[in-house]
Specification:
By secondary structure, this protein is an alpha+beta fold. The chain contains six helices and eleven strands. It has one domain.
């Protein structure tokens, strides 16, 4: 086997290993490091919770989510990912404008109105579900060696209900300077 063929084989094997050891990330808000703040989402009948965390539930009437506490406009304009009472992915308008078209097949964004504000946030309803997490080890997850990877950017784990993001998604965040904290799992 010649040098060129060995190089091609090594590249191919590296690609296979990369797919087998696909890395996943979780998102956090920088805001929670600086102050004890969380958006409270109005969900009296638990419909919003069910919509985001039970894959079999399909509630088509959720068009607008109400956030019942207000926040300083400067914080809304500075950050692109926000903590909230339901633990759902909640993005800024700036992040939504960037991600909405890219994530068309993997995420449905739902408008969130904020009490006493004209600003909007957007909740991300994941459309792709997979068995990604095998188990937990303290604060870290252990991932299945190989999953079906029916997604490119993000998916929700079926058993753990965790929202997970791929390197491709993280690259979009970093390349566009979105103010979102990323944790490597």
């Amino acid at each position: 086997m010649g040098q060129k063929q060995v190089s091609i084989l090594v590249l191919y094997l590296n690609k296979i290993l990369e797919e087998l050891n696909m890395k996943f990330y979780t998102l956090y808000s920088f805001i929670s490091e600086q102050k004890d703040f969380i958006f409270n989402i109005e969900d009296k009948n638990k419909e919003i919770f069910k919509y985001f965390f039970i894959p079999e539930i399909s509630i088509n009437n959720i068009k607008d989510i109400k956030i019942i506490n207000s926040i300083d406009v400067k914080i809304l304009e500075k950050y692109d990912f926000f903590p909230n009472s339901l633990g759902i992915p909640l993005f800024s308008k700036r992040a939504f404008d960037l991600l909405n078209e890219i994530l068309t097949n993997e995420v449905l964004f739902i408008k969130c109105s904020i009490k006493n504000s004209e600003h909007l946030l957007y909740a991300a309803k994941f459309l792709k579900f997979d068995n990604i997490i095998e188990s937990e080890d303290g604060m870290n997850y252990i991932f299945f060696l190989k999953n079906s990877a029916n997604f490119k950017y993000c998916a929700q784990d079926i058993d753990y209900s965790e929202f997970l993001y791929t390197k491709e998604f993280i690259d979009i965040i970093k390349n566009n300077n979105l103010n979102i904290k990323v944790k490597d799992n």
